[in-house]
Specification:
Layout: H1 3-9, H2 15-27, H3 37-49, E1 59-66, H4 81-91, H5 96-104, E2 106-108, E3 111-114, E4 122-123, H6 141-160, E5 165-171, H7 175-187, H8 191-194, H9 203-220, H10 227-234, H11 237-252, E6 256-257, H12 261-273, E7 281-282, H13 292-298, H14 315-333
Parallel strand pairs: 1-2, 1-3, 1-5, 3-4, 5-6, 6-7
Length: about 350
């Protein structure tokens, strides 16, 4: 599905289905709304799908994988070869996120949208890494749209295969630099407020990272109101593809789970392109990275998990899957008040 077609399909959440889901929760023999965000997320999913029969048995993680030319500026602790290494580890259940997926009963579908070398994961490569954004735009506008449409395509494919919820993930050395750049531009916030140490940068390395972002933004002057312009000039193929997952989810009524900062920046790009996509985004955890809280706040999300995680790959989103399983188990397994012989709780004034 092309981007323009997907955007035309996006509608508000189904309020009637959400109200029916709330009523079902209130009929269950427990104090009203006592499961808090676990109840809220199933209500949201009912609104997303238009169906109170919430079914999350088939769960997927889609890590979008790509390299970033800005690593030439010394903004990372490791080289680009690590991107390819982790990509191969995804399929061998040697990466953290793939081990976690196996543990919680989710499938992993890593996608190469721009890894600097050829790898054995699903090939949707747009280029062998982006350009160095300090010297030239990271990609063309056409390449950014191609990456977004790759994300939309993945939602289409997985929905056809029966997957009911998709977690977003990423892998790409240098993508904490690109995500900080994109967030800084769209939110109009100082670069240093949005930039962290990534995978363990020294103070000197952090300063290089901040200065690289400042130079790139000053050089290209991306339009903060145009998400495609921003991601094409100072972003990455992975961020654009993640934005496509959120747009695809909204178009096809599939819930999409936000992971950490990089995933949230992809969500921010999607929301900049189409604000109604926010209703289809489900938060998982608050990243330890400096921009973690702020990005969720801007997206209007409250994440249930506070684990100080910042690994990426979709690990925070996958950690949230068992809580969804618990919520659906109670939703279907708990008797109503009459079934256990007690009067129903009623809302207090």
């Amino acid at each position: 599905m092309k981007l323009e077609e997907a955007l035309k399909k996006i509608r508000p959440l189904d309020e009637a289905a959400m109200e029916q889901c709330r009523q079902k929760w209130d009929s269950i023999a427990h104090p009203l709304h006592s499961l808090g965000k676990l109840e809220d997320v199933l209500v949201q999913i009912a609104g997303i799908t238009g169906d109170i029969r919430v079914d999350l048995k088939k769960k997927a993680l889609v890590p979008m994988c790509a390299d970033n030319g800005v690593v030439e500026e010394g903004v990372t602790q490791t080289g680009q070869e690590i991107t390819a290494l982790v990509c191969e580890n995804f399929l061998q259940t040697k990466a953290v996120s793939s081990i976690m997926c196996k543990t919680v009963g989710a499938e992993i579908f890593p996608v190469d949208v721009g890894v600097a070398t050829d790898v054995s994961i699903l090939n949707r490569k747009i280029a062998y890494g982006t350009k160095n954004m300090v010297k030239e735009p990271a990609m063309t506008r056409e390449q950014a749209i191609q990456a977004i449409e790759t994300g939309i395509e993945m939602v289409e494919t997985l929905k056809e295969k029966g997957y009911r919820i998709i977690a977003t993930g990423e892998m790409g050395i240098g993508n904490t630099t690109t995500s900080s750049a994109v967030a800084s531009v769209i939110l109009g916030r100082p670069v240093e407020d949005m930039t962290g140490r990534g995978a363990g940068l020294s103070s000197e390395g952090l300063n290089r990272k901040i200065n690289a972002i400042r130079k790139a933004v000053a050089l290209h002057q991306p339009d903060p109101k145009d998400g495609i312009d921003v991601v094409s000039k100072v972003g990455g193929f992975d961020i654009a593809a993640i934005a496509g997952l959120f747009i695809g989810g909204a178009a096809l009524r599939v819930p999409i789970v936000i992971d950490g900062v990089i995933s949230a920046v992809g969500a921010l790009v999607a929301a900049t392109i189409c604000p109604e996509t926010k209703g289809y985004m489900i938060p998982s955890h608050v990243s330890k990275e400096p921009a973690g809280h702020l990005l969720l706040e801007v997206l209007g999300k409250e994440a249930p998990l506070h684990c100080d995680m910042c690994l990426g790959e979709g690990t925070g989103a996958v950690t949230f899957f068992p809580l969804l399983d618990i919520a659906t188990a109670v939703y279907y397994g708990m008797s109503d008040f009459g079934g256990i012989g007690m009067e129903a709780y009623v809302p207090l004034a």
